[in-house]
Amino acid sequence: MNTTAQVLEKNKDRILEKWMQNQMADPSLREDLMTNDELQHQSKEMLDGLLRAISKGNYDNIYETEFEQVTDTLRDISITRARQGFSPRETGSFVLSLKQALIEVLVEQRQNDTSTLYQEIMLLNTMLDNLSIVTFETFIKGREEVILRQTDEISEISTPVIRVWDGILALPIIGTLDSARTQIVMENLLQEIVNTGSNIAILDISGVPAVDSLVAQHLIKTVSATRLMGAECIISGIRAEIAQTIVHLGIDLSNIKTKATLASALQLAFSMTNLEVRRIDRNKTNKLLR
Amino acid sequence: MERIPILKMGPFLLVTIQIDLYDRLALTLENDLINMVSQTGARGVLIDISAVSIVDSFMGRILGNIASMSRIMDAETVVVGMQPAVAITLVELGLTLQGVHTALNVEKGMELLNNKLGDNLEPDDEEEEDQDDRND
Fold it and tell me: The CATH number of A4-150 is which of 1.10.490, 2.30.30, 2.40.160, 1.10.10?
């Protein structure tokens, strides 16, 4: 009598055919993201590896060395699919449809021997369930990497340092200030102060949804660091509700120059650098010209 | 033993720290500087730390000490050219150097000291002007 592995090896082509059929029949097949040839290639590679792995007689522990190649292939496939934007269902059905194909073939081959068939199906079930767990783990890891990368990008985009005037920098902060973000904001601001030789930095927090004691602490840190560098720091964009929260929390901002709007902060900055903005009286100049 | 040179520029003392300060050197500097202030009657001390890349709490304290001591002896202290990384470290250590003036570079530091000196002298000038007015 043949072992399960041998039976499956003999019917490899048939399994692959059935598996491909199953995958094609699935309404969620993403032909737009992946060609059929590619799918066929992936499936074949996966099946070859799997049959080689079980030929040693190990059906249940997929963390053994024989399965290394299978799990590696599977991880590659899931991570690529995660990046390409496949849904979890589409990724999971890759392995689960293999289970169906394997069982169908076994049923054909073991028509007379139901007890062996039953045991084989149980074994295959456990093995493929484990493999699908690996698929999902990797898939989610792939998605998390995408999310992390996007978070990095957002935090990079959202901390621009603007040069509003010669010697005056403005830094609009949008979104919540956490420790990591404060660090980036602080580093960018200080570096820019060195690069431009600016005297005054305006931190505009109108885009910060809420200020709690932690955020206030971060703001105070940034202001202190700016002061140490030899520049003055003005905080602007404090809304009524934020002012209320700050006072209720008992946060002391008395050492820090604060303004309600960016415009008034800029005005303060002008007066600190002895600059003046004046309206030009056009009538007067016209008269003079005549 | 190594020493950090202290230069006299008019009414000010200029110190440029070119190497990373270790504790002994910092203490010697503190000592030398205060002696120089008392000898020369300097009105301002300018410390350039643009080449310093590493600071610890001790260094922060020494800077604070120098500032407080100079204040007692009627001299203002300006620390100039602090590196961003150094500033962040000091803030994280909780040392905000209260009482120490800061400036971006030596040029701006000198300007600041001149202004401070000018502020102190101004009242006298105004009195003279008042007298002139009366004479008129």
Answer: 1.10.490
Using pLDDT thresholds of 50, 70 and 90, give the confidence band for residue A268. Answer: very high
CB pairs under 8 A between A and B: 57
**B53 φ, ψ (degrees, to nearest 5):** -110, -15
Q: Specify whether the CB–CB gap between A206 and A174 falls below 8 A.
A: no
d(CA A145, CA A82): 10
Q: Give me A131's structure tokens.
A: 């493999």
Predicted TM-score of the model (pTM)? 0.63
The pair phi, psi for residue B56, each rounded to 5°, is -130, 180
Nearest to B104 among A183, A197, A221 (CB): A197
Are A7 and A104 a contacting pair, CB within 8 Å? no
| Contacting residues of A for B79, CB less than 8 Å apart | 228, 230
Which class is A162-272 in CATH?
alpha beta
Q: Which H/E stretch holds residue B105?
A: none
Q: Which residues touch B117 (CB under 8 Å, ≥6 apart)? A: B11, B43, B44
Determine the length of chain B. Answer: 136
Q: Average pLDDT for residues A227-234, to the nearest whole number?
A: 90
Residue A286 amino acid letter: N
Q: Which fold has domain B6-135?
A: Transcription Regulator spoIIAA (3.30.750)
- Interface predicted TM-score (ipTM) of this complex, two decimals: 0.74
CA distance A257 to chain B (A): 16
Pull the structure tokens for residue A264: 């008034």
Which candidate, A206, A159, A213, A211, places its Cα nearest to that of A187?
A159
Residue A113 has which token pair? 């021997």
- Tell the burial category of A65 from Cβ atoms under 10 Å away from its Cβ (0-12, 13-18, 19+): exposed
Token duo for residue B59: 């260094």
Nearest to B84 among A190, A198, A199 (CB): A190
DSSP summary character for residue B20:
P
- Taking alpha carbons only, the member of A215, A131, A136, A147 closest to residue A181 is A215
Q: Taking residues A170-192, what's their average pLDDT? A: 84
Which residue do the tokens 């960018």 mark? A188
